[in-house]
Amino acid sequence: MTEDTNKSQNKNNNPTFNFKEVASKAWRSGLSGSMAMAIQVCSLMWLRTTMNYQYRYGGTIVGTIKHLYGEGGILRFYKGLAPALLQGPLSRFGDTFANTLFLTLMDSFESTRKLPVMIRAAGGSIMAGVFRIALTPVDTVKTILQVEGKNGLTILQSKIKVKGVPVLYHGALATASATIVGHYPWFATFNLLNEKLPDYVDKKKKLARRAFIGFCSSVISDTISNSLRVIKTTKQTSQNPITYQEAVNLVLEKDGVKGLFGRGLKTRILTNGLQGLLFSILWKGFEDFLNKRSSQQ
């Protein structure tokens, strides 16, 4: 939702529910989110590859970057770019579509319009988690290419020969769980700060406000959901099919509890902090443009 939407709807004591209008608004928000994510994939892919490698094998940011660069230079950081350009925008479309759909639905009824933002955000988080399950095969291909580089597809093909196509859905449960656990605090924080912080007419202050909200949302979300992403990546990229328990054991044996909760966390906070900052500006900028364009038609 744009900054002014919540305020204007609260002034309307007798809202008329229009599903077509609600769906159209959610579609514009989802489309805005996907466009913003496409830009982010290209600009921040190198950090995400570093992060996923750390999720699987541990290590520091600097050490991992040096290792990956040694494997293939700058292009090594962009292994999995094609599936990332498909998965990233689609997943963000689902996230933003779900968030806006549920918030707009809640705001359309007197009985739910005054519920706390934290409660209104929950429905969108569950919907986003289910949507991510459908994208798991694309995420699996992307992640194994990021972690294993040129050998990624060979490893994945070998696993498919042993366990069949369901291998592409390895990590789906953790993906959905991490999405819900990560999506809810991100959008709950975003919606709460968006509702509580004063809005500005000045463009620079408006951009700074959006950037601050996005960064805060990302830091909170990443800290809460990191361990699930470590487990997901370990299961997806193991050279042999393994269970979730075995994935947890692999991490614990090498890095202990600290590794389970802390692997790649600094990189993720840096990456998603930058992404959250950039995404909030781009998402709301595109959304404002599409909403304005729609109102003129």
Automatic annotation (TrEMBL):
Origin species: Paramecium primaurelia
Family per similarity comment: Belongs to the mitochondrial carrier (TC 2.A.29) family.
Ranges occupied by Solcar repeats: 115-196
Signal peptide: none
Xref: InterPro entries: MCP_transmembrane
Keywords: Membrane, Transmembrane, Transport
PANTHER family named among the record's database cross-references: MITOCHONDRIAL SUBSTRATE/SOLUTE CARRIER (PTHR47567), NAD-DEPENDENT EPIMERASE_DEHYDRATASE DOMAIN-CONTAINING PROTEIN (PTHR47567:SF1)
Residues in coiled coil: none
GO cellular component: membrane
Name by which UniProt lists this protein: Mitochondrial carrier protein
